[in-house]
Amino acid sequence: MVEILLSDRKNIGLTQLQELLQNGFTCDFNDIEPWLTDWRGRYTGKALAMISPISTEQLSQAIKICAKFEIPIVPQGGNSGMVAGATPNDDGDSIILSLRKMNAIHYQRTTPNLILCEAGVILQNLHDAASEHSMRFPLTLGGKGSATIGGLISTNAGGTQVLRHGNMRALVAGIEAVLPNGTIYDGMSALKKDNRGYDITQLLIGAEGTLGIITKAKLKLVPAIQDRIGIWVGLESPHKAYEFLLHMSQRCGNQMEGFELISEASITRVLQYIHGTRLPINPQPWYILIELVQDCDDSKNVQILAETSLAEPLNDGLILDAALSTNETQLEDFWKLRDSISEAERAAGPAFQHDISVPVHRMADFIENISPQLEQKFKGCELIAFGHMGDGNIHYHVKAPDGVSQEHWMPLEKQVNSAVYDAVISYGGSISAEHGIGQSKLEELERVSDEARLFALRAIKKSFDPHNIMNPGKLIKPD
Asked: pLDDT tier at 15 (50, 70, 90 boundaries)?
């Protein structure tokens, strides 16, 4: 009898949502089905319906209905996340909240270093809008054609330019959000000083939709690039790469936007599986991709800066070989090598993928010490490391032995993940650098986190969302 009453309450709530949203409501499986599976194809859930509000005010009313009838909400942007944070679970009690209709962008000439956009704006569209005003939004990643601003803020996304500009948290000047009771939080004033207690904006950034739904954001822009150059470098080891990082940081300062570490194994697969790719230098054990930019009048000429910065490490043998891009097409070819690694690895066979971070000065030690240990522990596997060396973020993949199928590799996932994350914690690192926790890392976060962190996360979640309707089953388990 209780279950019937609960079902009736939800049906009443769904009816009210349909009346409120009209065409922005659907319970047709054919409409919902494409959004039930995560980007990596690892998790598939169920949903009662999908709602697509057109404004913050309409979303506020919808969430008040969901709060009243305790209908769980799973917010979803471009569905391009890596940890199934926007995928409903399989109990079928929740609704999917799509913010893709809320996609307006407003540029104000009175504040040319800021841009206002709604949560459903696709990152590439934001880049295009900023460039029309000779500005740019300095965060980019492989999924820029589908990732949305709301999702990027909710996961505190990183990318290839964190070295200079920081991750999403550093680029947000203000947000608007709807909280679990339906009230609208206005944090859009972008004040330099504001000491009215807890920083709610910062709590919502990186919360993965578990504390509220971000609807708008005021984002920081920087001047458009006047000129840029790519440097493709070959060297012996991650330790040499770290020495080279210190050298280039000193010589290039904030004109260095990216410093990407790439293994020979990664590039071999890219060249094998990705059409139109070519290595710009002779094969080496490890590679670095650097991007230098010139975006203000007093910046140094990037061609001269690159040449003078490479002279000493080439002469001293710190680096083995180097190539400079001569035009935009060649620079994009450099980046294609880097950005195609994950695609090439998927084509090469099953692998367990880890987005981890360790202190920058310990990244080389981690790769060179832990990789052989894991390859010994899991016979026949191959450790592939690449990522943002300038900020300590390693994409650390454990590839199955050649000839081993996904079906036979999957049973080892929990054991492999635990071994990787235990090593990360021993190095003072984090099991999630830029992709979030979502569903896929929920159990491991519980296992490796200290008591104080778990207490704080649960207390904040319970305080904001006592009925656990905001993206349940993601980031943190309630008490």
From this structure: very high
